[in-house]
Amino acid sequence: MSCSSDSVTHNKDDLEKNVGLTETVSRYSPPYSDISEGRTLLIICIVTSAGFLGPVAGNIYIPVLPLIQEVFKISTTTANATVSVFMAVCAVAPLFWASWADFGGRKTLYIISLLFFIVSNILLASIPANVAALFILRIIQAIGASSVMSVGAGTVADITAPKKRGRAISYFMLGPQLGPILGPLFSLIASQGNWRWIFGFLSIIGSIIYVTILFFLPETLRCLVGRGECYRGKRWIVHPRLIQKQLIEESISFPRPPKPSLKVYWKLLKFKPLLLCSINGGLLFATFYGMTITFAKILRENYKFPSWKLSVSYLCPGASLIIGSIIGGRIIDRIVSKKEEHIPESRFYLQIIGLLISMVGILGYGWCAHFNVHVAAVFVFSFLGGFGMTWVFVGNTTYLTECSTGQPATNVAIANFMRNVGAAISSVIVEKIIEKIGYGWCFTGLGLLDLIGIAFVLILMKFGPRWRRDFSSTK
After folding, report:
1. Residue 144: partners with Cβ closer than 8 Å, 6 or more residues away
2. Cα separations (Å) of 194 from 67, 126, 184, 190?
3. 188-197 long-range contacts, CB within 8 A, separation 24+
4. Residues 395, 400, 406, 410, Cα dihedral to 10°
5. Which domains are assigned to the chain?
6. What is the CA radius of gyration of the chain?
7. When you count CB atoms within 10 A of the terminal residue's CB, does the N or C end of the chain come out lower?
8. CA dist., res. 401 & res. 220, Å (int)
9. 324 with 388: CB under 8 angstroms?
10. Are 326 and 166 in contact (CB under 8 A)?
11. Which pTM was predicted?
């Protein structure tokens, strides 16, 4: 995008009156127009691969729990606790990583966090079996792996224009979505009792991605590198550096976010668009997680599926996440690109469709299990549940990267925390509710939570622009 300085100043003044400083900056400052399409694609591929590590580390471990229980001589409850502590840390740790990534640089956080991940896996693969060490290293593993979902979304936001961001976010989300699908398959390397190999495998792929980040991932935080002119005509190989230098002077075009603090988080949590999007994502993921944790039980008890069929069956909801993400991202960008003026809330029209699809999937899944109808119907409705959920998440995540706070990674981390809270609550109560009222009514209640999500979407469509404008004026 090019224009005269007078035109830029005139447009800037007009836009500041309407939408506030941060959003104004995004409109008259081209979002990394000096980074080539090829290099942009490389960056997205790198952060997508890094985003794969956390989910695959969580899911490769679950199938070998009986072996872990035997080797470490621990109870089922203790073995399950090693999963719970991993998930809890994955929910909380990104809140710290993301805020520092928005303030001091993306690449520094990748380098530090993934080093934790690699070292913890090397130690898990090599030290003697000790339950205390297992818990400590699983915590460190989660601290290292959990950063990339939120920080990676911030990187994608740095290098893509809003009208192309939905598709870019959908590709980035393939990493986290492939983890739950491929993790159980990769766990087969421990089928002969070699449980240490799962951690050896994680350390190997983690190290490959780490080296790629060191030498091929440039810093992208806008307050450090501006529009990326510093990369123009340069080689794609970059010099490894722990602390990223500021390559431009601080300016109104590329303001530095506030230093991370509890006060900053409290202010963000009071920002209504972020809060409503995060709660909506938490409720939606709670419904999907309820379906996920009962999926194997229904197929085993109602349809007598053997273990190998159960593993293969998870390809159905897994495929729904991938397909829903890619299709949702493309359609969102196509609709947004037709509008002359980009308004972030314009993405929410499609979220209503996604929530309705999800609700149909969850309701159908519950009543199919209740009446024990043909297994094909269970697969169809589970597919719809996952498809609708990821359709919404692509739009939600994209919106959170551009909703005026200037801290996209932190926004996504807060939403990720809400999703993990929703999953944790769902995992505790779903089985108890099913015992009392059955699958049909349980999933009817969960499916109807999507109506709350639709109400949130309608509220954001009406009041979101004003709330963003008010937030920008108080910064």
Report:
1. 113, 114, 115, 116, 117, 118, 119, 120
2. 9, 12, 15, 5
3. 190/63, 190/64, 190/67, 193/67, 195/64, 195/67, 195/68, 195/71, 196/124, 196/125, 196/126, 197/125
4. -140
5. 25-226 (1.20.1250.20), 266-475 (1.20.1250.20)
6. 22
7. N
8. 14
9. yes
10. no
11. 0.81
DSSP state of 244: P
Nearest to 25 by CA among 219, 170, 169, 158: 158
> In a 3-state reduction of DSSP, which class is residue 374?
coil
**Alpha carbons 426 and 289: distance in angstroms, whole number:** 7
pLDDT, tens digit, 9 for 90 and up, residues 115-149: 999 999 999 999 998 999 999 999 999 999 888 87
**One-letter amino acid of 161:** A
DSSP-based helix, strand, coil % in the chain, nearest 5: 80, 0, 20
Residue with tokens 């409109």: 27
- The model's pLDDT over 27-67, given as tens digits with 9 standing for 90+, comes to 444 555 667 888 989 999 999 999 999 889 988 887 788 88
72-76, Cβ contacts within 8 angstroms, sequence gap of 24 or more: 72/129, 72/130, 72/131, 72/134, 74/131
* Residue 167 to residue 82: CA distance in whole angstroms: 35
